[in-house]
Design brief:
- The chain is an alpha/beta fold and 323 residues long.
- It folds into 2 domains: 6-180 and 214-244 and 289-295, NAD(P)-binding Rossmann-like Domain (Rossmann fold); 190-210 and 245-281 and 303-322, UDP-galactose 4-epimerase, domain 1 (Alpha-Beta Complex), CATH 3.90.25.
- It contains 11 helices and 15 strands.
- The strands form 5 sheets. Strands 3-2-1-4-5-7-11 form a 7-stranded parallel beta sheet, sandwiched between helices. A two-stranded parallel sheet has the order 6-15.
- Helix 2 links the parallel strand 2 and strand 3 (52-56).
- The protein is globular.
- 46% of the residues are buried.
- It binds nicotinamide-adenine-dinucleotide.
- Nicotinamide-adenine-dinucleotide is lined by residues 10-11, 13-17, 35-36, 58-60, 80-82, 84, 99, 103, 122, 124, 152, 175, 177-178, 184.
């Protein structure tokens, strides 16, 4: 695909969705941005940017989804809407099923009936469940251990059925723990960085040895656009991360190195629990060879540079709120 297409982005006002919309606009594409509600910032941007159209659409509302896809007839879709996160999905499992699975089916059906072929689905390493080795590729068994992973895997599999039976092209970008400015969830490295910038010590008691691939938001967005643009896919899934897995203690050390006087420590009294209460699957690094070879994906941020970019943006945001 070349630039100047019309791309429908679901979950467009979410964290990754917003970044994807900005990246598409920056390169000259037209964007149909849909979400449960349109953020003020995006509505304002749409009033000034003729290549941006916004709509409040609940993916659970079949008629609204069909009407949107039929009327605006995008060239392709980036599907970022979901109930996101292991803890959130565990807390509202039925809603997670409705949004992540039923909402995805509504989208695929609307695409089928409207003749829209390609969708890039933002999937996750949670679909793999417990990593069986330190580095895993896309052929690793997918045996999710979380409600979140289960729903995202179901969405992937529906995509395979729609590809086989209806000629859709459902491409799954499996990214890992994405971090960067304005991360909407209270998890590391955000918690580490915010404490350090406030000049407060922070101690996380467990999970210090959990090694997990952490990818800076710009790299995930770049991988999604490369998957969108690839003319012909030989595969329907790509790991898009960094290929290395720093431990949570390494992440704390990166923050300590970047902020003079920071005192961020991570203990190892037990395994890591998401949100302090939902046991994490065994993690590791995602082998990104396929994305490198097939898509030309090359992550630009290692942990230290990504942490430093996040700190700079967080510092600026904190200064703005205290001004
Ligand atoms: N952030 C990460 O670390 C990460 C990692 C792997 C995969 N992903 C995937 O990336 C995508 C975006 O994640 P994010 O971090 O931006 O999350 P987010 O919560 O910021 O964004 C999700 C968006 O989906 C929208 N949404 C929820 N229910 C909807 C519905 N019924 N109809 C329409 N829109 C609805 C929300 O309003 C929200 O704006 C998700 O599919 C997620 O599974 C994220």
């Amino acid at each position: 695909m070349t630039a100047s297409k019309t791309i429908l982005v679901t979950g467009a006002c979410g964290w990754l969705g917003t970044a994807i919309v900005q990246a598409l606009l920056a390169r000259g594409d037209r964007v149909v941005a849909i979400d449960l509600a349109v953020s003020q910032a995006m509505a304002l941007q749409a009033s000034r940017q003729p290549r941006l159209v916004t709509a409040a659409v609940d993916l659970g509302e079949w008629h609204a989804v069909l009407r949107t896809v039929q009327t605006l007839r995008p060239d392709a879709v980036i599907h970022a809407a979901a109930v996101v996160g292991v803890v959130q999905a565990a807390d509202i499992p039925l809603k997670a099923l409705r949004v992540n699975v039923e909402g995805t089916i509504n989208l695929f059906e609307a695409m089928r009936l409207s003749g829209v072929r390609r969708v890039v689905h933002l999937s996750t390493e949670e679909t793999y469940g417990d990593f069986q080795s330190a580095v895993i590729d896309e052929e690793h068994p997918q045996k999710p251990t979380s409600v979140y992973g289960l729903t995202k895997l179901a969405a992937e599999h529906y995509g395979r059925v729609y590809s086989r039976d209806h000629g859709l092209e459902c491409i799954n970008v499996r990214t890992c723990w994405v971090y960067g400015p304005h991360l909407p969830r209270l998890r590391m490295p955000r918690t580490f960085i915010e404490a350090a910038l406030r000049g407060e010590p922070f101690h996380q008691p467990d999970g210090g040895n959990l090694a997990v691939d952490q990818v800076y938001i710009d790299d995930t967005v770049a991988g999604v656009l490369l998957a969108l643009d690839k003319r012909q896919h030989r595969f329907d899934a790509y790991n898009v991360a960094t290929g290395v897995a720093p431990t949570l203690r390494d992440t704390a050390d990166a923050v300590n190195r970047a902020i003079p006087g920071a005192q961020i420590t991570v203990g190892d009294t037990g395994p890591y629990h998401h949100g302090g209460r939902v046991l994490s699957a065994a993690k590791g690094a995602l082998d990104i060879s396929r994305a490198r070879t097939e898509l030309g994906y090359q992550p630009r941020f290692d942990l230290q540079t990504g942490i430093e970019a996040t700190i700079a943006a967080t510092r600026a945001a904190m200064a703005k709120t205290s001004a």
